[in-house]
Request: fold
Amino acid sequence: MRRLARKVRDDIAEYRANMTDIRQEEKTIPHFTITAQHCPGSVIKINSITIIKDNSPVEKEINIDLRRGDHMLISGPNGIGKSTMLRAMLAGEGVNIGENVRVGYYSQDFSELDYDSTAFSALREVALPDKKDQDIYAAAGRFLLRGSLLQNKVASLSEGQKGLLCYARFMLQEPGLLIMDEPTNHINFRHIPVIADALQNYAGVLIVVSHVPDFVSKLKN
Reply:
């Protein structure tokens, strides 16, 4: 009977914790700002890109020089290699990224996150050296990541929470270049106008792939 009672108590505690997480995710995040690193001159020069045409990779030489305040939207049908193109940029393939430029990256599958680390550690690893623990907790709180949730492993977070964790990382990192692959994937629809506003006002270089028309229109306006 004692074991049964303990199991019931544990089940109730888990249920309440899950309900708390659900209620948190149903809230709307407040407006936020991603401070851009000051990068004089060229932030990224794109010299070549590789796209998929007729199921084969095709490399094209281009000449695009993006500087602080430049935003570039990459669009096109599925299957032409847009995500691969962004990963190549991140790896420095076909591009020259300015010296000491901090790069923030949002991938569709959150491959930039270490699933074995805690949410707090994921924030601390990208935070600028002058950021204190209280700054990390404050940034996390803006994205509904609070309390014991920050001590949980990234793997245990919902997909929506992983997405919000990425935005908290950008706030703490203050990148000069943001590379974003479908940055509204897994994000609660309530948050999308807030995120669009933050990205529209981001003063660094933004390179983004998105298939969400409303989101794209907000970035263009």
